Amino acid sequence: MKKLILAAFALTTAVSVFAQGTIVFNNRIGGSTINQTSHIWGPGSGANSTLSLIGLGSNDSPTGTTAYATKGMKLIGDGGAGVVATGNGALIMGYKTTFSQLLGLVGKDLGEASLLPLNGVTTFRTGTSLGDVAALNSTMNGQPTSPDAAWATIEMVAWDNSSGLYSTWTLAQPAWKLGLIAAGVSGAFNVANIGGSQNGTPVLTSGGAVVPGLSFNLYYIPVPEPSMFALAGLGAAALMIFRRRK
Asked: What's the whole-model pTM score?
């Protein structure tokens, strides 16, 4: 009886581990039905460091008109493995220290706030593939209906992990919102026929169509300085406390 219980537990564990929907995580896609090359860029220079751009650029395939380079942005990995500071105030993000991950949830046209991190964090490529992630298969953890699902809403995120403190998007997102690191998001899109026992593992296309949002840049979220009224209020409160103590 004990052996049967252990065997059943092992089988249940195996099913829970392996029964997950899969997606090919790659923004450089080549095949007989679709060819798409997208790129991820670092922050812009000067005032453009807080600028967010999403869309196909002139070096993408198919080509687009989003002007990353003219804003002082450099492709991820253009300066080497780690972060490099430039003379114009921009940062070139390293291919080893910039991380990327997919977020997703079973269903079509879902809100970004509902998306969950997929298993599989990757870095970037070098040489002629600057701005492209090192491809891997991502799995939809904790989503039992994901294998062979008709649709999933997906988003790509990327962030600076040169500090070594933010190994996942769960850790990086709060730091980004506090203005501590640069990060960026693609915006949500739909992927059809999620991988499972019947479907092969799909690439990042929207039901076979190009996803323009797979090209985007990292940027800093500006942290607002305290207003004069807020500072005056703090000063008044401190003065009252000081008087009471006297």
From this structure: 0.83
